[in-house]
Amino acid sequence: MELSAASQKLSQLECPCLVVYAASADKKLIFELKEKEMAKVSALVHGVFDSGRFKASLKEAVFFRNASVCGFENVLVVGMGAKNKINDETLRLVTAAAVKNLNKEKIECATLAVETFRRFLPQAFSAGRAAAEGALLGSYKYEELKTKKGDEKKVSGLCTLQFGLSDKSVLKKFMDGARVGEITSNATNFVRDIANAPGNYLTPTVLAKRAEEAAKGTKIKFKALGKKEISALKMGAFLGVNQGSHEEPRFIIMEYFGGKKSQKPVVLVGKGLTFDTGGISIKPSAQMEEMKFDMCGGGAVIGAILALARMKAKVNVVALVPSTDNMPGGGALKPGDVVTAMNGKTIEVNNTDAEGRLILSDALAYACEKYKPSAILDAATLTGACVVALGNVFAGFFCKDKNLLKKINAAAESSGERIWQLPLVDEYVDDMKGTYADLSNIANSAKGAGSSLGAAFLSQFVNEDIPWAHLILQALLTTRGLATHTTLTKGHLVVL
Ligand SMILES: [Zn+2]
């Protein structure tokens, strides 16, 4: 979808559909279009509100077919809800709803009247970003694997959304924000594509290829290590997970240095488990097909570095993705087997389904040794226990560094992501000690606190002087197909 700017008066534009937003306060309608020529639009919106057909509640929409106002054939009004609750996230949701309605009506080009929501959101840059994100994230569909015949192949939905506002300087700021939103949304939709791809289509080799292709034309230096190179690095925990599979592992390394040479990089580490059967500790069959999403942490960090590189951000960032599937083949790890991670620590694998922490442990150790980073953030679908604690509303995270913690919270706030800090203390670390090896990949005694225990295990592979955060993405993945608007990587990693 193309996003463009129109600085003419609305009455001078010609376009199949005009989109306006309306809010409410104390059961009264709040709607305004100043141009006299547009009076008919106000009359339409007030008309449906007064008749009770439209309450301007959040995402509620009314489509006026053949309304013919100036150069517009049709008019779509979408509600923003109560005026005092409106923020950038509201604009994202409302714009996503608008685009869905336009697609339903098979409208190919529409003009959004920025004036109708500007008074609620005076910061033009962030409003522009939110509107673009709503439009592009909200129209996402995954249809790569459906065959289409004849007419179905034709695109019959929104192709162009233009933002209309006659104040040129405000519109410029709005569009600057929209361009950033376009970059983050395209990166997010790329991640959704690779996440939705099934395990037999998206093997570790294919994941690496797709990331490499996506990085073309940017300043990202791309490398994907194969089995031999991973062995040479002595990543015994990562390789252990791979040994029951017919698919080769890949260790994806993407480096983007857009900042000063002296600046130490931030390293993003993501779990790239392309399919998790649980291994010998096999998972129950129900919903096992969703285990193709076990690479979403890896996807998220690939998306984040792509977005930063396309924005030409002045930062130094590295994304690391250990990628394999977890299969119960004849050579698979058995419960009780001991593997040795890259930093020399030995690990008893007492449950082969707790494999995410095994592949991440080697990637975290590699990050510390190779880059001496200013901070490490890892993102993973690591522990389902997080959903027990927070449901599907919040993503959980761990961070002991106060400065990094502040930045993460600020980034979540500005991107409309809901995240919640969980506790990590020494008692959890003690519970991850091994009987026969240094560590066990599952807890010895504790019942519950699965997420804290997972984080405690990972903490053993990060140098104490490096600020580190562990983000759990599970909660955001349970909506089937990742096609809904609220999902991972609206950009919270990017804001750092
Ligand atoms: Zn698992």
Describe the structure.
This protein is α/β, with parallel strands linked by helices. The chain folds into two domains: 138 residues, Leucine Aminopeptidase, subunit E, domain 1, CATH 3.40.220; 307 residues, Aminopeptidase. Helices cover 35% and strands 22% of the residues. The chain is built from 15 helices and 19 strands. Strands 8, 9, 10, 11, 12, 15, 16, 17 and 19 form a nine-stranded mixed beta sheet that branches. Strands 1, 2, 3, 4, 5, 6 and 7 form a seven-stranded mixed beta sheet that branches. Helix 2 runs parallel beside helix 4, helix 4 packs parallel to helix 5 and helix 8 packs antiparallel against helix 10. The longest helix has 29 residues. The chain starts with a strand and ends with a helix. Zinc ion binds next to loops.
Pick out its properties.
496 residues; alpha/beta; Leucine Aminopeptidase, subunit E, domain 1; Aminopeptidase; disordered C terminus
